[in-house]
# Entry
Amino acid sequence: MNPIRVTVWGENVHEHKSPKVAAVYPDGMHNTIAAGIRELLPTAEVGTATLQEPEHGLTAEKLAATDVLIWWGHMAHAEVADAVVDRVQQRVLEGMGLIVLHSGHFAKIFKRMLGTSCALTWREADEKERLWVCNPGHPIARGIDTYFELEREEMYGEPFGIPSPDEQVFISWFEGGEVFRSGCCWHRGNGKIFYFRPGHETYPTYHDKNVRRVIANAVEWARPQGQWTGVSHCPNVKTPVEPIKPKAR
# Structure
């Protein structure tokens, strides 16, 4: 099987505006996420792209060479060009995997693919998050115990304005009492989508071994299966595969 081609897209704004975030992710969150994938999937071809690059680093050529796209955004959702969102959507429908992290729940591409508000409740109070595996047979949960904990994270709470997931892998409990559907899978066209909740920018979440394992597992799960041979329009096929016998009228 060919190596998985992964692109990690990062908004890359917090790291330049907040010294606190820069201290946790001096190379940027996108590079930290990419490093975790390279560590656990050493045969994968892993690259990065950011908002500040031409076409946000997601040219048609780049996306054509991407099997799985990972997306982290927060402050600048509105700055992502609609033409780029269109391009990413088409690639997902063709079969490219999409992994959306944390505050990417409000990204244009995530809301576009799910067709709902994707709204939620939140609180930033340095509280513990416990992520329970509710589907231990799922490939994204491979290597994860019954649960794992992050000592400090931002709280996301229900209701979460998403369509019912095709598969639910994780559910989170927070120290303040809330729960949240924190690991959700969907299929759109030929593509697979996974949303994974942890990853607030001021916490070292993407250095955590369990978080890295989940993302690496999700990359393997979301990679295209088979080859896309469909069309994006409705052609009039005038030449049949086999002769059509005239019918008596």
